[in-house]
Amino acid sequence: MSLEAQTPALQVVVPLVVAPLVVLLRDARLAWAAASVASVMCLAMAVLQASGALGGEVVSYQMGGWPAPFGIELRVDALSALVLLVITGASALALLGGRSSLAADIAENRQPLFYAAWLIALAGLSGIAVSGDAFNVFVFMEISSLATYILIAAGPDRRALTAVFKYLIMGTVGATFYLIGVGLVYMMTGTLNFADMEARIAEVADQRPILVAAGFITIGLALKAAVFPLHVWLPNAYTHAPNIVTVFIAACSTKVALYVLLRFDFFVFQGNLEDHLAQFAGFMIPLALLGILVGSAVAVVETDLKRMLAYSSVAQIGYILLGASFASTAGLMASVTHMFNHALAKGALFLAVAAVGMRMSRLTLDGISGIARSMPWTMAGLAVAGASLVGIPGTAGFVSKWLLLQAAMEQGPLGFAAAAVVVVSSLAAALYVWRIIERAWFGVAEGAGSVAGIQEAPWPLLAVLWVAAAANIYFGLVPSLPLDLAALSAEELLRHLP
């Protein structure tokens, strides 16, 4: 078997094997280097699998040589390949640029344990993306969640402990709901493999337990994905986590939960349950629109930078969910493309915030007044990422928002209302991004000379920030990679509809 055929397993095995080695290294710099190399290796494998997926290739890996559904299957198609790119790219860039920031936030003797937890979170998230059966999704979900709790609580901000506790409670409820739903499906079908579930559900005489299972699974995953109004754990978790940890989890954690939601609702349920498509749209479209409006409105009035961007993520999750709820080719393409583009924009924004956090103790609008005169390259990178978040033409964010507007227009009067909400939200995004830029470039610092002597961000962090900012421009001008993967994903998702 070729190395390329082994990559679905290696996506999980590499970080899991390196994690204990990182602890044994003990030296903080060596631990960071090992974790970074493992993340870059995972990114390289994700690029390789995305290349295969663009050619229509679907990789199925049978663990232990046992064929599905009797054994554990790892499966990589276009959708999971795109999600893997987001996960591994976020991990690699955050680690490569975040060494100095993490060294300031994490005690040196605890850093090897921290990097081990990071790799375990990476392995869990990657495992969710490649898993071909529902129970292993739960296993990897819990692995990634437990490691993420450690990452969030590892910094010097003691408020992170209460944020993690809230996240733990909500995450546990979500995982429990998901597991109950999977148990009900298993009780009625006798299988845990996604493809086998789809085939066997059609043969179940009494569909009521399957309907209940669909409800449990959808609510559980909505909790994990921070879908409005189940988002209450997200703002504090993003705000009080170490800055580089926020870069990682903001770029990919909610996307992974949304990925599982799409895989279940389209691959397993849509083709078998009567009126499930209408029920899914009937529940999710209002929640998506409310999330877009409420998240944007709160972001406009927030003064804390990380909390502002956290509520912005609630709105962006609404965009992704709205496109999926249309259950059309254009809607699903917009949804999947925005998973990728939002990860680029929000990851770059939080990298810029992390760079400012290296020089300033107060990450508020008042605290950054005039900071651009001392950190022009950092704030210019933030401006580029902010333009992508708003959806300015020429940036990646514009591509997915344009697709979403086109998909909305196909839906008739309801679609026109949804398009209006998207436009209003984009104007709100322009307002809160402008508040940051205006205060940083034109604001007057509190106290004479309070920003004097502040230096630009460390060059590794600045370099990674500009790689992410440049990617927002590149994929705005040359969007073929995410668009092609999104088109293949939409085709595969819709193939399962009746």
- Described by the principal axes of the CA atoms, the overall outline is globular
Oligomer state equals single chain
Mean pLDDT: 87
**Beta-strand share of residues:** under 5%
User: What is the chain-wise order of helices and strands?
Assistant: HHEEHHHHHHHHHHHHHHHHH
The biggest beta sheet, please?
Answer: 2 strands, antiparallel
**How many β-strands, per DSSP?**
2
What low-confidence regions span 5 or more consecutive residues with pLDDT below 50?
none
Tally the helices: what do you get? 19
How many structural domains?
A: 2
- Read across the widest sheet, the strand sequence of neighbours is 1-2
What is the terminal separation in angstroms? 36 Å
Give me the secondary-structure category.
mainly alpha
Helix content: over 70%
C-alpha Rg (nearest Å): 22 Å
Detailed description of the structure:
The protein has 498 residues and is an all-alpha fold. The protein contains 19 helices and 2 strands. The chain has helices at residues 3-25, 28-54, 78-97, 99-105, 111-130, 134-153, 159-189, 194-201, 208-224, 234-240, 243-269, 276-301, 305-325, 329-357, 376-390, 396-409, 413-442, 459-477, 480-494, and strands at 59-62, 73-76. It has a two-stranded antiparallel sheet. The longest helix has 31 residues, at 159-189. The chain is globular.
